[in-house]
Structures
1.
Amino acid sequence: MTDQDDYFAHHKGEPFRFKERKKEVGWLKAALESFAYLPPFNRMFGKVEPSYAESYWYCLGGLTFLSFLFLVITGIILTLFGPPWWLHTPTGVAVKSMHYWSAQAFFFFLFIHVVRVWLTGAYRGERWVNYAIGLTSLFLALGENLFGVLARGDWESQFVAMHSNYMLFGLPLLRLITPSNFTQVILIHVAFIPFTLLVLIGVHVTLVKLQGIARPL
Ligand code: HEM
């Protein structure tokens, strides 16, 4: 750790001195750091995680988050360039594969994260709210996966469209969705669900930072 990075440790509880800090590290870093002094972020920094959280089991939520970021970045690139690019050019196919494998990684880490949360009883007390937010994200992510498969337009996509049409999109409200309508499916996949997930995951991770990591059972 350099002297400059040590700022938080040495000035804990003091007001942030923007001008002083600007001279030391430049305006950009000083401006970014000043966020650490605004609520609710001001309670996130300078915290030491408890020793029971120093384990790979406690990194799974972070890995899920990282996979989600990969999904968002590759998803934005795919959306910008469009189907002919992702289907017929080597770079497009590579980015599409990255998007697919990020989704596999996301669900892999997510399910073990939930097992960890469950086995350590991390849903106790006030954390039930965050458990509920996590669970909502899980179901939304499953829906996001379904619309991703539907948007692909291959044989598997047609098979899933046919079955989901009978099983899911016959239900009240969901009846408004037609799985063979590409425009509708892609809009839900690239806009509605990802934005909701982004907000939910943002709240989830912020709450973990504010509430701290639960003591295992
Ligand atoms: C949708 C993607 C999700 C992301 C990106 C995510 C991310 C995280 C992160 C980074 C943590 C910090 C501790 C750790 O990494 O283990 C955490 C904790 C937690 N997560 Fe998630 N999570 C997700 C889904 C879920 C789901 C589905 C549930 C429950 C059904 C859940 C329940 C919790 C709870 C209760 C904690 C607090 C753990 C503690 O205090 O020990 N999360 N999550």
2.
Amino acid sequence: MTRNEFIKVFCNVIDLYGEKHYPAVRQNLIYDVVKNLSQDIFTKIVNEIIGNERYAPLLDDFKKYAKPFLAEYNAKFISEIRKNNMCSKCDSFGVICIEKPYLKSTADYAYGCDCLIGKKLYPNFPRLSR
Ligand SMILES: [Zn+2]
């Protein structure tokens, strides 16, 4: 959803709850949460909020209402990159687990794979040194 599409829907929230609650900085934070969703889905979220919330909804409220839709978006996003980027090193999970000695036993250590999936989904995991 573009910033303009967002504003077209968000102006309903501003009209109802008052402009003073939504300075640009707060609008930007809310946009960041929902920008990966479509305008149609954001409209649904805003309608739910308007129907339910007596007081001006803030960032956490938008996160709460958007959560199921974001979960769906993320699941689709992940399955798309898995489908298009088969990796035999990590079985397209993005992570490689290696058993190493730890204290007197062993433990599984997780490393981010060097493939696209590993880089996208686990950018902060340690990499296996080659
Ligand atoms: Zn991989």
